[in-house]
Amino acid sequence: MPWAPHDTQLILSCVLGLVIIIVAISALKLAPFLSILVGTFAAGFAAGLPLEAVAGAFSKGAGALLGDVGIIIALGAMLGALMAESGAADRLVSTILDHSTPRTLPWMMALVAIIIGMPLFFEVGLVMMVPIIFVMARRSKQPILRIAIPALAGMTTLHALLPPHPGPLIAVSALHADLGLTLGLGLLVAIPAVILAGPLYGMWLSKRMHVVEPEEMSKLFSTQDDAAEPPGFAISLITILLPVVLMLGRTVAKLALKPETFAFDALNFLGEPLIALGLTVLFAIVALGWSRGMARDRVGGILRKSLPPIAALLLTIGAGGGLKQTLVIAGISGTIGKIAVGSHLPLILLAWLIAVALRQATGSATVATTTTAGIVAPVVAGLSTTHNSLMALAIGAGSVFFCHVNDAGFWMVREYFGLQLKQTVFVWSILQTIVSVVGLGLTLVLWGMLT
């Protein structure tokens, strides 16, 4: 369809909403939740939506996102607090420190994040890694960014590029690419991206940006009384890897087992993120608490105190989901599609740019990946499976370019690490941009080698 005045109106309304959010947070010092709410209504009204429609879209988007990740974050906070106060996190950190040096520690953190993040959604992996990051920084006396950025890079790169994460799976399905080939090529692209965006960028940024450990998170992930003997390494490792194993089992079931069999249903149920984390919290209560003589009142107190620090985080993430849904309802995806159709760029670069534009507008990697794959699918019908796999990787790379205020991960990183808005841009937005650009560059190189 031809470009219409409404398309221009949509682009300008997006810009208006984002500017209002940034000014409200950075200049007026308003709470992020309130700032995003105001910016969403401004953008929706400027886009021509009735105010009641904006309110409905905001509520729907916030509820949907919190339904996906809100309870997971709460369970992750409980698990993190139990691991910290029982000494399990300290035990894992001690073991990692025993097998690393200050020079190799960022590389070790990136590797740990890759292992933990392979089968997990980014949000799940982050809430599991946060207590390890805080305790590791405290014990090693390293800048927290030097520890956190490699972990963030490892998890977000896998989430963007490698199956079984939802974005890559969607692209593989829509483009009829080969799953195994995409996984193999994805590893070739992901490893250099993690190295550049993780240990190397983390060591560079930590020397130039000083971040103090936030007080609330410091209390939440404080270590146990020194007089208490921490749990053994084996039980600590089992606890942190239990949800990883359960979710990996679900992925294996979907790939290798027939539906409607007992094994498939059991693994599919146990690997649901909510079930996997819920069972892990119950396991931690018994294994790290009750079985070691910890009083039930103390265990209950640990679980209760883990929730207040994440209240602001949950509200902010929900508001980001409301902004995303409002822009989607307004039709921003169709506008971006028109821009793509009217351009005359190399196919793989075009796919990356469409994904970039959709991610900037909607704040959702899944929306960006799904819509982009749908737009380019008819064009790639005659390409080889290898080229289709590279197209899927380019789309995944574009879906994480410079994620900002309409991205749930942006607010999770900001609140967990107590960052200012500008600091979050450097820690999160630029990190993801490095992943995105390196991903594009390597897919272009592989495309040229295979053409």
Give a structural overview.
The chain has helices spanning 5-26, 32-46, 51-86, 88-98, 105-117, 122-140, 144-161, 166-175, 179-206, 215-220, 233-256, 262-270, 273-289, 296-305, 311-330, 332-341, 347-362, 365-376, 385-398, 408-417, 421-450. It is mainly α. It has one domain. The longest helix has 36 residues, at 51-86. The model has no long low-confidence stretch (mean pLDDT 86).
Give a quick summary of the entry:
By secondary structure, this protein is mainly alpha-helical. Helices cover 78% and strands 0% of the residues. It has one domain.
Helix content class: over 70%
Proportion in β-strands: under 5%
Mind telling me the C-alpha Rg? 22 Å
Structural class: mainly alpha
Give the oligomeric state of the chains in this entry, treating copies of one chain as homo and distinct chains as hetero: single chain
Termini separation (Å)?
32 Å
Order of helices and strands: HHHHHHHHHHHHHHHHHHHHH
Domains counted in the coordinates: how many? 1
Give average pLDDT, whole number: 86
Largest sheet: none
Q: What layout of secondary structure does this protein have?
A:
Elements: H1 5-26, H2 32-46, H3 51-86, H4 88-98, H5 105-117, H6 122-140, H7 144-161, H8 166-175, H9 179-206, H10 215-220, H11 233-256, H12 262-270, H13 273-289, H14 296-305, H15 311-330, H16 332-341, H17 347-362, H18 365-376, H19 385-398, H20 408-417, H21 421-450
Helix pairs in contact: 1-2, 2-3, 2-15, 3-6, 3-13, 3-14, 3-15, 4-6, 4-11, 5-6, 5-7, 5-9, 6-7, 7-9, 7-21, 8-18, 8-19, 9-19, 9-21, 11-12, 11-13, 15-20, 16-17, 17-18, 17-19, 18-19, 19-21, 20-21
